[in-house]
Amino acid sequence: xxxxxxxxxxxxxxxxxxxxxxxxxxxxxxxxxxxxxxxxxxxxxxxxxxxxxxxxxxxxxxxxxxxxxxxxxxxxxxxxxxxxxxxxxxxxxxxxxxxxxxxxxxxxxxxxxxxxxxxxxxxxxxxxxxxxxxxxxxxxxxxxxxxxxxxxxxxxxxxxxxxxxxxxxxxxxxxxxxxxxxxxxxxxxxxxxxxxxxxxxxxxxxxxxxxxxxxxxxxxxxxxxxxxxxxxxxxxxxxxxxxxxxxxxxxxxxxxxxxxxxxxxxxxxxxxxxxxxxxxxxxxxxxxxxxxxxxxxxxxxxxxxxxxxxxxxxxxxxxxxxxxxxxxxxxxxxxxxxxxxxxxxxxxxxxxxxxxxxxxxxxxxxxxxxxxxxxxxxxxxxxxxxxxxxxxxxxxxxxxxxxxxxxxxxxxxxxxxxxxxxxxxxxxxxxxxxxxxxxxxxxxxxxxxxxxxxxxxxxxxxxxxxxxxxxxxxxxxxxxxxxxxxxxxxxxxxxxxxxxxxxxxxxxxxxxxxxxxxxxxxxxxxxxxxxxxxxxxxxxxxxxxxxxxxxxxxxxxxxxxxxxxxxxxxxxxxxxxxxxxxxxxxxxxxxxxxxxxxxxxxxxxxxxxxxxxxxxxxxxxxxxxxxxxxxxxxxxxxxxxxxxxxxxxxxxxxxxxxxxxxxxxxxxxxxxxxxxxxxxxxxxxxxxxxxxxxxxxxxxxxxxxxxxxxxxxxxxxxxxxxxxxxxxxxxxxxxxxxxxxxxxxxxxxxxxxxxxxxxxxxxxxxxxxxxxxxxx
Length: 776
Hints:
Blueprint: H1 2-15, H2 17-43, H3 46-54, E1 60-64, H4 72-75, E2 80-83, E3 87-97, E4 100-108, E5 119-123, E6 133-137, H5 138-144, E7 151-156, E8 159-170, E9 187-191, H6 193-199, E10 207-214, H7 220-230, E11 237-240, H8 241-248, H9 250-284, H10 286-294, H11 299-328, H12 330-339, H13 350-377, H14 380-385, H15 397-404, H16 409-416, H17 422-453, H18 456-460, E12 466-469, H19 475-484, E13 488-501, E14 509-516, E15 525-528, E16 536-540, H20 541-547, E17 554-559, E18 562-572, E19 581-585, H21 586-593, E20 601-606, H22 612-622, E21 628-631, H23 638-672, H24 674-682, H25 687-727, H26 739-743, H27 745-765, H28 769-773
Parallel strand pairs: 4-9, 6-8, 14-19, 16-18
Antiparallel strand pairs: 1-10, 1-11, 2-10, 3-4, 3-7, 3-10, 5-8, 6-9, 7-8, 12-20, 12-21, 13-14, 13-17, 13-20, 15-18, 16-19, 17-18
Helix pairs in contact: 1-11, 2-9, 2-11, 2-13, 2-23, 8-9, 9-13, 9-17, 9-23, 11-13, 15-16, 16-25, 17-23, 17-25, 23-27, 25-27
C-alpha cells in the first residue's frame, strides 16, 4: 500500500505541476522571510558583546569638561572593581580631510589602559617617543578609507598638525563610526598626552574621562547616580554600557522590527493561501478520491496520500527558503561585525533552523488535515457520480445586487458563484486583505522616509542651508564675515551643551542654546510653539517620553552641576540623541547658569539662486581652513534608505504571493466548474463572455479585500509607526502617508485581479463543450 501511496502522490504532483509550483514558491518565500528575521534578531548583539569582552569594556564611562577634576572619589566607591585610570581628552576636536572637518575624541594615552583597552587590529600601538603618531578607531578609518602608514591632519590654532597613522584599534566603550552614528557621536583616536598638550596648550580647553568596571554590571545606573553625588555634579556627561550596546545595534533592531512585522504578515498571508490552495486541491480531486476508495483505499490512507504530497512540497520549500535565508541574513547581521573587525555571527544555528522547518511543515500538516479528512469521509458513490457539493442553485447576493442594478448578464454570471465555496472565498479575501495591509505599509514607509528626508532638522539637526563651526576663529570675526557676505541673508547661532535630569544620569540630554535670528528658521515644531522668552524651551519627543513630560510642564536639568529650569512650550522632531534634545535660548543659559559662553555653531540661510557650495568655499578660504562648513541636503540618511528598500522589497514579495494566490484559487475554481462552463456554452454563452465572467468574479473578490483591508491597514500602520516613532525618539508624528499613491491601490487591485485571472479565464474560455460535459 505504501508503494501505491507513493506512486499516486508522484502522479498527482506531475499532473498538477502548476498548482504545486505555486505552493512551493509561496512556502519558500514564507520560509525565507522568517529565517532572515529570526537569524538577524538572534545575532544582532553578538559582535559587540564579543568586542566588549575582548577589550574589557567599561560598564560606566564618566566625562568631565574640566581637566582638573579628580575622579578618585568615584573610583573609591565599593561598586567599582577596576578602572581605566584618568585619560586626558580633547572632545569634539576636528580631524581634517581635504577641506572637510570631522569631530573626533582624542584620548591621550601612553599605555593601553586595563579597562576600555583599545584592541589593535592593524599596525601597532603608539611608541613612547611617538609624538607625531596616531592610532585611529578601526570603524573611523574604514569609513574614510585610511590605512596604516598614511598621514592624517588634526586642526590646531596655527593650522593643521600632520600625524602618522601607526595603528587601527577597536573598542566597545563608544559607538562604531557609521552613517547612522557619525552625526550622533564623534570618532575616536589615540595620541600621546604630550601630543595632546601640543595640539591644545590651554588646560581649560581639555577634558578628562574614566572607564569603570563594576561588580554588578546591571547596577550601572545606580553607580552613575552615586558618582555624580561624590563628584559634586561636576561631570559633563556619562555613558552606560547598555546605551552603547543599544546604539550599536540600533539599525539592526529597527531592521528586525520591520522584518519581523512583514514576516508576520507574510506568514499570515501564506498560511491563508496554503489553507486555500491545499483545501482546493483536495476538493478538486473528490472524484479521484471516490475512485481510490472504490479501489480499496481507507479514509486514513486518503489523508496520508495528501499529507505525503504536501509535506514533500513543504520539505523542498523549507530547504530552499532556509538556504536563501541563510544567504541573505549576513546582509543585515555582518555590517556591525565588520565595523568591529570581528567575525560575523554564525547564521547556521541547527536548533533555530530546525524550529523554522518544523513551523513550516506544521503549517502544511495543519492546513492539509481538515480538508483531507473531509475528503476521506465522503460517500464513494456520491464522489464518483457528482464530486463535491455542486454550486448552489441560488445566486449570491452580489449577483442579486448586480441584477437589481441592471448590469450586463456577463457581469451577473461572474458574480453568481463568487461565494459558491464560502470558506475558500473567505480565505482568499483575508489573504488579499493582508496584502492590502502590507501595501499600505509599503506606501507609508516610502512617504515617511521621503518626507522626513526633506526635514533637515530631523536628520541633520538644523533647518539652515549651511552649518558653520568656527573652531579656533573668534566669534566676533565670524559675525563680521557673515555680515559682509551678501548671499547670507540671515543666520542663527548655537551653543551645544550636555545635561541630565535627576534620576536619569544614564540618559545624557543635548541642549541647543540658540541666539540671533533663530525665530526666522523653521525648526519643525509639531505641537505647541517655538520658544520666545527666557526660560522657555522646545523639546524632542524622546526627551518628553524619557521624563514623562508634556507641553506646559516645567523641568530642571543639571548642566555641570548647575540647575537649568525650563518651561516646555513646544515639541519638535529630531533624530539626534534619540530625540533627547532641548532647544532654548542662549540668553536662558547665560542667565541661569552664569556661564558667559560664546556660540560655536552658526546656521546660515542663503539667498535664492545662490550656490551654497561657492559660499562654503569662500568661507573656508577666509578662515584659512579653520571653518567647518557643511551644506545641508534635503535627503534621508543611508539607514533610512535601507529601511525603505526593505519595506518595498518585502511589499513586492507579498504582492507576488497575492498574485499567485489569486491565480491558484481561480484555477482551482475553474477545475470545479468545468461542467458548468460546458452547460453555459451549450446555452449560447461565448468564450469571451465566459472569460469576462471569470475575471469579474476575481475582481469582485479583490475589491472586497481592498474595501476591508484599507481601513484596517491604515489603523495598524498608524499604531505601528507611533511605536517605531517612540523607539527612535521621533514621536507619534513619525509616520507619513502618500494619499495619492495610496489611491492607486484601487486600480492596482483590479490590475492584480485581471493579470492573475487572465490565464485561468483563457483556459475556461477554451474548453470544448463535449470535453467539459464529460469532465471526470
